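Morning run. Coffee first, then this:
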Amino acid sequence: MDSKCFDLSGRVALVTGASSGFGEHFTRVLAAAGARVVAGARREDRLHRLVDDIAAAGGAALAVAMDVTDAASVAAAFAAAEAKFGTVDLLVNNAGVAAPGTLHKTAEADWDWVVDTNLKGAWLVAAEAARRMLAARRGGAIVNIASVLGMATSRGHGVYSATKAGVIQLTKHMALELAGKNIRVNAICPGYFKTEMNDEYFDSAAGQAYIAATPGGRLGRMEEMDGPLLLLASDAGSFINGALLPVDGGHLVMSI
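And here it is:
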């Protein structure tokens, strides 16, 4: 395969949850691949540092304040992206939160926060992206960031797992409806990587013991997400649609 298939020159990419973790990393990867990138998140101060780094490396980037649970905020972010770079034709739907807790110790407010961000937010952003791609009469790609916890589950992660299972089903639904419009929709299902969301746990003895017991015996490295992301975002994955791609070191196939 020609390596140019992974080139994103001429594409306009929007990444949600871009202020840290996967979102920040994905924004840098897409910019390095040639895309003009729009970094969206609520913590706008962090976004400006990210955009400055990308510009210093010769890339093109824009920071936009964005609350994925608010339709008006989502629409405003896409409008700002269009004004600067043109229609967004690559969405990385990454924003997500967690509130670990067992069933009987999870508060209604925790449920609302996680479901609104992870599931409603993914739907609002994807729907806005699709509407604008269709209005511009151009194709594109949507990459939803789900989780292996949407395909399996573990104690204390019921609400998070439910939202990521919803993102997986939403991915299939969107892929079916948009396939004839030249818009591909796929999902990456990461296993365990160290981010702000979980670093305290994985620095603990319990967290280290848990990871040591998985098939890979280690956490994923951020750069190990680059290939899967670029495959689904670029022309290299032009006939991949509605797919769920676990990136988990074999965690999902561990023996019972």
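The longest strand covers residues 183-190. Good start to the day.
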